[in-house]
Each structure stands twice: as structure tokens, then as C-alpha cells.
Amino acid sequence: MLDLLIQIISIISFVGGVFFILTGSLGLIRLPDVFSRIHAAGMIDTAGVSFIILGMILQSGFSLITAKLMFIGIFIFFTSPITSHITANLARKKGVDPVGKTKGKTL
Amino acid sequence: MINSKSIALFLFLFGFWLLMSGHYTVLITSLGVVSCLLCVYLTIKGNFLDNETIPIYFFPRLIQYTIWLIKEIFISNITTAKVILSKSEEPELFSVKASQKTNEGKVTYANSITLTPGTVTTQIKDNVFEVHALTKEFGDDVRGSEMDRMVTWLEKGK
């Protein structure tokens, strides 16, 4: 009974992860410029990855692999904002003008 | 040389070593202790061991901040998915002031903004952050500076 419950929760979490990754990929194609597309990529990095890892943790059972999977998630959470920031920063420095309005004084 | 920072670094390294190893015989574990000690020694020798490497004063409030951040990330993920599926994006670029005193606090704030989907820090100069937001609501969230207050609270430690 408990096994079935864990299976169901893990399947729900895989489906959630697939939904967020699919929506993020759609956003990568649909959104207008590089700055907006970073938001879609950020969605894959946070919600997509964490739901998939949650599903894997439930599938693997409680062992050393659980902790390793959690560390994979933590490392992605630490590194993904850095790559996002570098991409956005370089685009600004190379003079890519963002679509949409600019409010007040920017750097 | 032996202070709270080096002990914290050693505990982190050794905990991570135990996690990656999976073999717990006396010989292999003692080799792990020696290699972790060597790493801590090299860090001290190279003058890397400062508040930026191990911000120990963050730790007392870190768990509560992480829970709050995960909640925020989850909410803005759903909002971003809605925006992408309904094609209702109206991007905007603006500047906000950060109230953190230290570099570690500013890095934490900038990374937290970027980690939340819908907002990205594009440039940083002193304590002014330039932020790109996917919609006006995301921009209002950052301008409302709830996250700024949370990071300043985290930075103060206990």
C-alpha cells in the first residue's frame, strides 16, 4: 500500500517536471529576446530539475543515492543563477537592447 | 590557524567525502581525513579562508531562508509557466537599491533574484542592481523589496 502511494507521488512529480521542462522549452522558442528567454531557462533549472530529482529520490528508496541526488539538486541551484547572470551581463555589455520598456535610470 | 572557519570547512569537506565515498574501512576513511586536512591547510596557506569562502554567520538563519526561497521559487515558477502559455509577457528593465552591507550578502541577494524565474540580475554596480523582469508583476515583487529585507535579515546572523 505504501509502495503504491510512493509510486503514485513519484509519477506525479515526474509529470510535473516534464510539464515545467516542456513549458520552458516552449518559452525558449516563443519569447522575444535573449533576456526573456533566460527566464524560461531558469524555470527548467529550478522547477523542472527539482521535480525530476524528487521523483528519482522516491524511486531509489532511502540509501546513499538519495543524498547524492539531493547534492546534485543543491549544486544545480548554486550554479544555474551564475550562468544566467553571466549570459545576461554579457548581452548587456555587448549592447543588446532588451525588448519592452526601460524604467528610470539603468546602469 | 585553527578557528571556527577552518573547522567548519573541514567538516563540510569530510562530510562530502563520506557521502561520495561509500566505503567505510579504517584505511580509506583515514586517507580521506588526511586529504581533507591537506585541502584545509592549502586553503589557509593561499589566504582563501575568509568570510566569502565560509560565511559562517549566515548559518543560524540559513534553513529558514532556504524554505522561504523555495516557496518563492515555486510560486514564481507557476506564474512564469502561465505567462509563457498565455503569451502575456511585457518585459521591463529597471534598477533597485540593495541594502546589504557585505559582498556575501549582495551575492546572495543577486543570486536569489536570478534563481527566481521571471527576474534576472543583469548588472551590479556598488549597491545598485539592474534587474530584468518578465512582467510588471515580477518587477513589482522585486521593487517591493521583500527579498531584500529577507537577505539583510539573513546577513545579520543571530
Q: What is the alpha-carbon Rg of chain B in Å?
A: 20 Å
Largest interface: A-B, 45 and 38 residues
**How many strand elements of chain B?**
3
Shape of chain B: elongated
| Beta-strand percentage range of chain A | under 5%
Give the neighbour order of strands across the main sheet of chain B: 1-3-2
Poorly predicted parts of chain A:
none
SS-derived structural category of chain A: mainly alpha
Helix content of chain A: over 70%
Characterise the protein shown here.
- The complex is a heterodimer of chains A (107) and B (158).
- Chain A is mainly alpha-helical.
- Chain A has one domain (2-93).
- Chain A is built from three helices and one strand, in the order αααβ.
- In chain A, helix 1 (2-30) packs antiparallel against helix 2 (34-60) and helix 2 runs antiparallel to helix 3.
- The model of chain A has no long low-confidence stretch (mean pLDDT 91).
- Chain B has helices spanning 4-21, 26-45, 59-86, 103-115, 136-143, 146-155; strands at residues 92-97, 119-125, 128-133.
- The longest helix of chain B has 28 residues, at 59-86.
- Chain B has six helices and three strands, in the order H-H-H-E-H-E-E-H-H.
- Chain B has a three-stranded antiparallel beta sheet with strand order 1-3-2.
- The relative contact order of chain B is 0.13.
- The mean pLDDT of chain B is 90.
- The radius of gyration of chain B is 20 Å and the shape is elongated.
- The interface between A and B is large, with 45 and 38 residues.
- Strand 1 (101-102) of chain A pairs parallel with strand 1 (92-97) of chain B, so a sheet runs across the interface.
Task: State the gist of this model.
Chain A is mainly alpha-helical. Chain A has helices at about 1-30, 35-60, 65-95, and one strand at about 100.
